[in-house]
Amino acid sequence: MQEEQQPEAAADPMSSSDVPEDGPKETSSVSQSISDADAFKILLEMKMKKRQKKPALPSTVTELDTEDGSKVYVVGTAHFSDSSKKDVVKTIQEVQPDVVVVELCQYRVSMLKMDEKTLLKEAKEINLEKLQQAIKQNGVMSGLMQMLLLKVSAHITEQLGMAPGGEFREAFKEASKVPFCKFHLGDRPIPVTFKRAIAALSFWQKVKLAWGLCFLSDPISKDDVEKCKQKDLLEQMMAEMIGEFPDLHRTIVSERDIYLTYMLKQAAKQIELPRASETEPRKYIPAVVVGVVGMGHVPGIEKNWNSDLNIQEIMSVPPPSASSKIFKFVIKATVFGLMGYGCYRIGQRTVQFILSMPAAQSYLQKLTEIRSQH
């Protein structure tokens, strides 16, 4: 995948806090004469001084190496954990990365700039408008699947009182403080994942899965909250639900492991240093990358790290199967049937209400007397 195919969120490459305030005053008068290459070298030196040779990393971090000497630090997180947010901040501050890659796609990038209170409200509110928007973006089947999975997330949000994605927002903030640090979205687009997941299920598997998600209401105990600090509660619940559907696990988990691994390896390519002139030879240095992903994806990333990966196959969307068409028809028929029945019941009650009014009864009695006279 080419560099331009890696979606990036707009993170400031350098924060004003990185510029020392006690530097010599006279340098400001000659700063304009410094070339871009020299300015880059100065800032790079500042960054390298902050970068720890032997960083003190949290236990949730897995270190991976590339053939050309680049290093990738994968932070395994729980999406509803404060400790995971601290792990992300500490890792980025210790290693001063060149690239930060997060388990998000362009369809979920909005959560990076939303505050916790707004996200908490959004996560709890799943209404008809959101359902219509999901169906419009992803189609009927994928839209319904997306809303059902959001219901799982909303259930956890309501039980814990904590909005998901806090570790990604912390990663975005910290990346903006590191000079020349790029911010990449490393997850496969949601519509592709859901469409491939739907295509992998039979008609009855879709019905069974939808039924289980619709009636998810088990309470989350304080013990579960504590476990959440060691394991991703959302992914654990999802794993329990999709465990009996191997094909669903493959599309939602295993394929995304491959995609995330591929994006991390792309981000870990060596960095070309700026040249003072076209005649100067090109120089490259190994990259340092921090990946922020759910704990459930870390084993898959380790497994795929030394493999030659091709993501073209897992990016294709198969045509809808016969069972998908049947399920889609059943859903539409059910919706329209319920709407029709609702209109019928409302109309029936309206007629009964009008007929029960004294004025209407008097009018009907007079009409009956006129007919009897004729």
Automatic annotation (TrEMBL):
* InterPro entries (UniProt xref): TraB/PrgY/GumN_fam (IPR002816), TraB_PrgY-like (IPR046345)
* Gene Ontology terms: biological process: mitochondrial fusion
Q: Which Pfam families match?
A: TraB_PrgY_gumN
Question: What's a Gene Ontology MF term here?
Answer: mitochondrion-mitochondrion outer membrane tether activity
For this record, the Gene Ontology CC terms, alphabetical, are: mitochondrial outer membrane
Region (Disordered) location: 1-33
Stated name of the protein: TraB domain containing
Species annotation: Coturnix japonica (Japanese quail)
